[in-house]
Amino acid sequence: MRRRSCVLNHYKEVVEFRRKDLEKKIQDQISRCSIIEGSYENAKKNSQKTNRAIIVIEGWDGSGKSGIASRLMQGFTPDKCRVWHMTKPIEYEHQIHHLYSFWQKLPGPGTFSIFDRSWYGRVIFQQISQNGGTATEADGIVSQQEFYRTINEFEKMLVGDGVRIAKVFLNIDMKTLKARLEERVRKSQYNKLTVNDFEMYRNYDYYQERFDTMLRRTDSAAQWEIVDATDRNWARYRSLKYVLDTISDGFEEPDQNFSPDVRNEINGLFPGLLEELERNKIADTKTREEEQYIQT
User: Fold this and answer.
1) Do 97 and 263 contact (CB within 8 A), yes or no?
2) Which of 41, 103, 149, 222 could form a disulfide with 165 if both were Cys (CB 3.0 to 4.6 A apart)?
3) What whole-number distance in Å separates Cα of residue 115 and Cα of residue 54?
4) pLDDT digit string (tens) for 54-94?
């Protein structure tokens, strides 16, 4: 898989896309979920090692993390996929290992776990020692060095156990962050605003530096995809495509063709329909190949 640079400064998507087609492209990606779900179920039945997946969605507040998770859930069935909206650690969680609560949320065979924020939250939002990694975990303080070491080992272990991990980071600039905050105020989205959101805006450069360090130091066993989230629909499309491409890579898709008998019935009742659908499928494939060429 092509490695992506994890630098946030001046990071912008350089891709041309037709806005009027974005919603259709998003729906096309959502329709892939059921196919991928079937592939994972087949892998489970055949006792294949790779039969579960984790999707990590990180980014700035207001960058659209929950929107992407909800789009994925439009395609996956609830009994096969679970969204975990992770919040700030509660008091007792500061007294245990910082990965403890996530072990209980890992996916079982044939299933998927989506983390709207994840184990990366602590390195950004809790007090982290800056003294070169010599601090202990007393009082919930974890050194950066220890944090990154355990995260990389955790993800390496999961990948080695056959878990597919797709990680997306949604990036927005300071101007967009301010606009998203104002939008939440105007819409009276009380449950989506905290003091931390405003603190992040006031200290944008500081948080950007911490995000950049996090992305660089954890782009190992499971690599990051940085998505420009200035345009919500573009971010949804690009994130869905990357996530679904990553977790389906190497899987054989279940046979999606009609049986010969059914094709005969369709041709009798709807002459020319199958040929039309095949032409559309070829055109969509060509469009996706052109987009991939532009992105590379």
Assistant:
1) no
2) 222
3) 8
4) 999 999 989 999 999 999 999 999 999 999 988 766 666 66
